[in-house]
Design brief:
Layout: H1 2-28, E1 34-39, H2 47-61, E2 65-70, H3 84-88, H4 100-109, E3 112-120, E4 123-124, H5 126-141, E5 150-157, H6 162-175, E6 188-190, H7 201-224
Parallel strand pairs: 1-2, 1-3, 3-5, 5-6
Antiparallel strand pairs: 3-4
Helix pairs in contact: 2-7, 4-5
Length: 243
Protein backbone atom coordinates (compact mmCIF):
# COMPACT_ATOMS: atom_id res chain seq x y z
CA UNK A 1 0.00 0.00 0.00
CA UNK A 2 2.70 2.48 1.00
CA UNK A 3 4.50 1.63 -2.26
CA UNK A 4 1.34 2.51 -4.24
CA UNK A 5 0.87 5.78 -2.30
CA UNK A 6 4.52 6.73 -2.99
CA UNK A 7 4.00 5.96 -6.70
CA UNK A 8 0.78 8.06 -6.72
CA UNK A 9 2.64 11.02 -5.17
CA UNK A 10 5.42 10.68 -7.76
CA UNK A 11 2.87 10.59 -10.62
CA UNK A 12 1.17 13.70 -9.25
CA UNK A 13 4.52 15.53 -8.95
CA UNK A 14 5.44 14.56 -12.50
CA UNK A 15 2.06 15.77 -13.77
CA UNK A 16 2.53 19.08 -11.93
CA UNK A 17 6.03 19.53 -13.38
CA UNK A 18 4.72 18.73 -16.87
CA UNK A 19 1.89 21.27 -16.47
CA UNK A 20 4.34 23.94 -15.28
CA UNK A 21 6.60 23.17 -18.27
CA UNK A 22 3.76 23.39 -20.80
CA UNK A 23 2.48 26.58 -19.13
CA UNK A 24 5.89 28.23 -19.30
CA UNK A 25 6.28 27.30 -22.95
CA UNK A 26 2.87 28.79 -23.74
CA UNK A 27 3.72 32.00 -21.91
CA UNK A 28 7.08 32.24 -23.71
CA UNK A 29 5.50 32.15 -27.11
CA UNK A 30 2.57 34.39 -26.09
CA UNK A 31 1.40 36.02 -29.30
CA UNK A 32 0.01 39.55 -29.25
CA UNK A 33 -3.69 39.17 -29.97
CA UNK A 34 -5.92 42.04 -31.03
CA UNK A 35 -9.65 42.79 -30.82
CA UNK A 36 -11.31 45.50 -32.86
CA UNK A 37 -14.62 46.93 -31.63
CA UNK A 38 -17.17 48.85 -33.69
CA UNK A 39 -19.43 51.34 -31.92
CA UNK A 40 -22.53 51.73 -34.07
CA UNK A 41 -23.81 54.71 -32.07
CA UNK A 42 -23.46 58.37 -33.06
CA UNK A 43 -22.48 58.94 -29.41
CA UNK A 44 -18.75 58.44 -28.86
CA UNK A 45 -19.32 58.25 -25.11
CA UNK A 46 -22.80 56.77 -25.11
CA UNK A 47 -24.13 53.55 -23.64
CA UNK A 48 -22.95 51.38 -26.54
CA UNK A 49 -19.41 52.74 -26.23
CA UNK A 50 -19.48 52.26 -22.43
CA UNK A 51 -20.69 48.66 -22.86
CA UNK A 52 -18.01 47.89 -25.44
CA UNK A 53 -15.36 49.51 -23.23
CA UNK A 54 -16.20 47.21 -20.32
CA UNK A 55 -15.63 44.20 -22.59
CA UNK A 56 -12.42 45.75 -23.93
CA UNK A 57 -11.11 46.45 -20.40
CA UNK A 58 -11.39 42.75 -19.59
CA UNK A 59 -9.59 41.84 -22.80
CA UNK A 60 -6.82 44.34 -22.08
CA UNK A 61 -6.54 42.95 -18.55
CA UNK A 62 -5.80 39.60 -20.20
CA UNK A 63 -3.02 41.16 -22.30
CA UNK A 64 -5.05 41.53 -25.52
CA UNK A 65 -4.60 44.73 -27.55
CA UNK A 66 -7.82 46.60 -28.34
CA UNK A 67 -9.11 49.37 -30.58
CA UNK A 68 -12.56 50.98 -30.81
CA UNK A 69 -13.85 52.47 -34.06
CA UNK A 70 -16.81 54.87 -33.98
CA UNK A 71 -19.07 54.10 -36.92
CA UNK A 72 -22.12 56.09 -35.87
CA UNK A 73 -21.57 59.57 -37.34
CA UNK A 74 -19.77 58.56 -40.53
CA UNK A 75 -21.51 58.86 -43.90
CA UNK A 76 -21.83 55.23 -44.92
CA UNK A 77 -24.02 54.18 -47.80
CA UNK A 78 -25.90 50.90 -47.73
CA UNK A 79 -25.06 47.98 -50.06
CA UNK A 80 -26.20 48.76 -53.63
CA UNK A 81 -26.14 45.05 -54.66
CA UNK A 82 -23.75 45.77 -57.56
CA UNK A 83 -21.85 42.49 -56.91
CA UNK A 84 -18.58 44.32 -57.72
CA UNK A 85 -16.95 42.57 -54.74
CA UNK A 86 -17.89 39.19 -56.26
CA UNK A 87 -16.49 40.11 -59.67
CA UNK A 88 -13.33 41.96 -58.58
CA UNK A 89 -12.17 39.49 -55.88
CA UNK A 90 -10.03 42.20 -54.28
CA UNK A 91 -11.38 42.03 -50.71
CA UNK A 92 -13.01 45.42 -51.26
CA UNK A 93 -16.42 47.00 -51.68
CA UNK A 94 -16.89 48.82 -55.00
CA UNK A 95 -18.10 51.91 -53.10
CA UNK A 96 -14.82 53.62 -52.25
CA UNK A 97 -15.67 56.99 -50.74
CA UNK A 98 -16.01 55.88 -47.11
CA UNK A 99 -13.96 53.92 -44.52
CA UNK A 100 -15.62 50.51 -45.08
CA UNK A 101 -12.70 49.03 -47.03
CA UNK A 102 -10.17 50.21 -44.44
CA UNK A 103 -12.29 48.63 -41.69
CA UNK A 104 -12.58 45.34 -43.61
CA UNK A 105 -8.77 45.08 -43.60
CA UNK A 106 -8.66 46.00 -39.89
CA UNK A 107 -11.09 43.16 -39.17
CA UNK A 108 -9.08 40.77 -41.32
CA UNK A 109 -5.94 41.61 -39.35
CA UNK A 110 -7.63 41.27 -35.93
CA UNK A 111 -8.06 38.05 -33.93
CA UNK A 112 -11.39 39.12 -32.44
CA UNK A 113 -14.25 41.39 -33.50
CA UNK A 114 -16.82 43.12 -31.26
CA UNK A 115 -19.99 44.60 -32.74
CA UNK A 116 -22.01 47.11 -30.71
CA UNK A 117 -25.17 49.00 -31.62
CA UNK A 118 -27.71 51.20 -29.88
CA UNK A 119 -31.30 50.10 -30.32
CA UNK A 120 -33.06 52.31 -32.86
CA UNK A 121 -36.72 51.33 -33.40
CA UNK A 122 -36.02 47.85 -32.06
CA UNK A 123 -33.32 47.39 -34.72
CA UNK A 124 -29.62 47.96 -35.41
CA UNK A 125 -28.74 51.66 -35.96
CA UNK A 126 -28.87 52.45 -39.70
CA UNK A 127 -25.25 53.48 -40.28
CA UNK A 128 -23.99 50.38 -38.50
CA UNK A 129 -26.23 48.14 -40.61
CA UNK A 130 -24.99 49.78 -43.83
CA UNK A 131 -21.40 49.11 -42.77
CA UNK A 132 -22.02 45.52 -41.68
CA UNK A 133 -23.97 44.51 -44.80
CA UNK A 134 -21.16 45.68 -47.05
CA UNK A 135 -18.20 44.47 -44.96
CA UNK A 136 -19.56 40.99 -44.29
CA UNK A 137 -20.70 40.51 -47.87
CA UNK A 138 -17.21 41.40 -49.12
CA UNK A 139 -15.74 38.95 -46.59
CA UNK A 140 -18.06 36.11 -47.54
CA UNK A 141 -17.43 36.36 -51.29
CA UNK A 142 -13.67 36.80 -50.93
CA UNK A 143 -12.76 33.55 -49.15
CA UNK A 144 -14.47 34.23 -45.81
CA UNK A 145 -11.95 36.74 -44.41
CA UNK A 146 -13.25 36.61 -40.83
CA UNK A 147 -13.53 32.81 -40.52
CA UNK A 148 -12.59 31.44 -37.07
CA UNK A 149 -12.01 34.84 -35.52
CA UNK A 150 -13.70 35.24 -32.15
CA UNK A 151 -16.75 37.51 -32.38
CA UNK A 152 -19.40 38.90 -30.05
CA UNK A 153 -22.17 41.50 -30.16
CA UNK A 154 -23.65 43.92 -27.61
CA UNK A 155 -26.57 46.36 -27.61
CA UNK A 156 -27.55 49.45 -25.59
CA UNK A 157 -31.20 50.26 -25.10
CA UNK A 158 -33.54 52.48 -23.08
CA UNK A 159 -36.28 49.90 -22.58
CA UNK A 160 -36.94 47.21 -25.21
CA UNK A 161 -35.55 45.96 -28.50
CA UNK A 162 -32.17 44.85 -27.17
CA UNK A 163 -32.64 41.16 -27.96
CA UNK A 164 -33.51 41.61 -31.68
CA UNK A 165 -30.47 43.89 -32.04
CA UNK A 166 -28.05 41.39 -30.48
CA UNK A 167 -29.75 38.71 -32.56
CA UNK A 168 -29.27 40.69 -35.80
CA UNK A 169 -25.62 41.42 -35.01
CA UNK A 170 -25.07 37.74 -34.22
CA UNK A 171 -26.26 36.87 -37.74
CA UNK A 172 -23.09 38.46 -39.19
CA UNK A 173 -20.93 36.50 -36.74
CA UNK A 174 -22.73 33.21 -37.38
CA UNK A 175 -22.68 33.56 -41.14
CA UNK A 176 -18.90 34.05 -41.10
CA UNK A 177 -18.05 30.83 -39.19
CA UNK A 178 -16.75 32.97 -36.34
CA UNK A 179 -16.49 31.59 -32.82
CA UNK A 180 -18.86 33.22 -30.37
CA UNK A 181 -18.23 33.52 -26.63
CA UNK A 182 -21.21 34.01 -24.34
CA UNK A 183 -22.00 35.72 -21.05
CA UNK A 184 -24.41 35.00 -18.16
CA UNK A 185 -27.38 36.83 -19.80
CA UNK A 186 -28.16 38.47 -23.16
CA UNK A 187 -25.49 41.06 -24.05
CA UNK A 188 -27.73 44.08 -23.48
CA UNK A 189 -27.19 47.14 -21.26
CA UNK A 190 -29.89 49.63 -20.27
CA UNK A 191 -29.85 53.41 -20.21
CA UNK A 192 -31.24 56.42 -22.09
CA UNK A 193 -28.77 59.31 -21.84
CA UNK A 194 -25.09 58.68 -22.60
CA UNK A 195 -23.42 56.96 -19.67
CA UNK A 196 -26.63 55.87 -17.92
CA UNK A 197 -25.75 52.21 -18.41
CA UNK A 198 -23.22 52.73 -15.61
CA UNK A 199 -26.24 52.40 -13.28
CA UNK A 200 -27.19 49.02 -14.78
CA UNK A 201 -25.25 46.71 -12.46
CA UNK A 202 -26.44 43.56 -14.17
CA UNK A 203 -25.70 44.92 -17.65
CA UNK A 204 -22.18 45.86 -16.57
CA UNK A 205 -21.59 42.38 -15.18
CA UNK A 206 -22.85 40.82 -18.43
CA UNK A 207 -20.22 42.84 -20.31
CA UNK A 208 -17.46 41.91 -17.85
CA UNK A 209 -18.25 38.19 -18.06
CA UNK A 210 -18.39 38.43 -21.84
CA UNK A 211 -14.95 40.08 -21.91
CA UNK A 212 -13.46 37.43 -19.62
CA UNK A 213 -14.94 34.56 -21.65
CA UNK A 214 -13.85 36.17 -24.93
CA UNK A 215 -10.27 36.57 -23.68
CA UNK A 216 -10.18 32.97 -22.47
CA UNK A 217 -11.50 31.55 -25.76
CA UNK A 218 -9.01 33.65 -27.72
CA UNK A 219 -6.14 32.32 -25.62
CA UNK A 220 -7.40 28.74 -25.92
CA UNK A 221 -7.56 29.03 -29.70
CA UNK A 222 -4.13 30.61 -29.88
CA UNK A 223 -2.56 27.86 -27.79
CA UNK A 224 -4.52 24.98 -29.30
CA UNK A 225 -4.68 25.66 -33.01
CA UNK A 226 -1.28 24.24 -33.87
CA UNK A 227 -2.14 20.98 -32.06
CA UNK A 228 -5.72 20.59 -33.32
CA UNK A 229 -6.17 21.57 -36.98
CA UNK A 230 -9.20 23.64 -37.95
CA UNK A 231 -11.84 21.98 -40.16
CA UNK A 232 -11.25 22.50 -43.86
CA UNK A 233 -13.37 25.26 -45.40
CA UNK A 234 -16.18 23.96 -47.60
CA UNK A 235 -17.46 25.16 -50.96
CA UNK A 236 -20.71 26.95 -50.15
CA UNK A 237 -23.88 25.31 -51.41
CA UNK A 238 -26.47 27.91 -52.47
CA UNK A 239 -30.00 26.59 -52.63
CA UNK A 240 -32.18 29.49 -53.67
CA UNK A 241 -35.56 27.85 -53.22
CA UNK A 242 -36.30 27.87 -56.95
CA UNK A 243 -36.92 24.93 -59.27
C1 LIG B 1 -33.71 56.98 -33.37
C2 LIG B 1 -33.75 56.32 -32.03
C3 LIG B 1 -34.56 55.22 -31.86
C4 LIG B 1 -34.62 54.57 -30.63
N1 LIG B 1 -35.39 53.46 -30.50
C5 LIG B 1 -35.47 52.83 -29.31
C6 LIG B 1 -36.26 51.63 -29.16
O1 LIG B 1 -36.84 51.11 -30.10
N2 LIG B 1 -36.33 51.06 -27.93
C7 LIG B 1 -35.67 51.59 -26.84
O2 LIG B 1 -35.80 51.04 -25.76
N3 LIG B 1 -34.86 52.68 -26.96
C8 LIG B 1 -34.74 53.31 -28.16
N4 LIG B 1 -33.92 54.40 -28.29
C9 LIG B 1 -33.08 54.81 -27.15
C10 LIG B 1 -31.65 54.28 -27.26
O3 LIG B 1 -31.64 52.93 -27.59
C11 LIG B 1 -30.88 54.47 -25.93
O4 LIG B 1 -30.87 55.84 -25.60
C12 LIG B 1 -29.47 53.92 -25.99
O5 LIG B 1 -28.94 53.91 -24.69
C13 LIG B 1 -28.59 54.77 -26.90
O6 LIG B 1 -27.27 54.26 -26.93
P1 LIG B 1 -26.02 55.23 -27.20
O7 LIG B 1 -25.87 56.09 -25.96
O8 LIG B 1 -24.88 54.32 -27.41
O9 LIG B 1 -26.36 56.02 -28.41
C14 LIG B 1 -33.85 55.07 -29.52
C15 LIG B 1 -33.03 56.19 -29.71
C16 LIG B 1 -32.98 56.82 -30.93
C17 LIG B 1 -32.08 58.00 -31.12
Amino acid sequence: MSHLRRKGRLDAMQAEQELARVGTNLEKRRIQLKVIAFNGSPNKEGNTACSLQIVLDQLEGAGIETEMIHVGKKKIQGCIACYGCVKNQNEACAIKNDPVNEWIQKMKAADGILLGSPVHFAGVAGTMKSFLDRAFFVSSVNGNLFRHKVGAAVAAVRRSGGIPVVDTLNHYINYSEMIMPSSNYWNVAHGLKPGEMEQDGEGKQVMEVLGKNMAWIMRLIEHGKEHIPAPEPVEKIMTNFIR
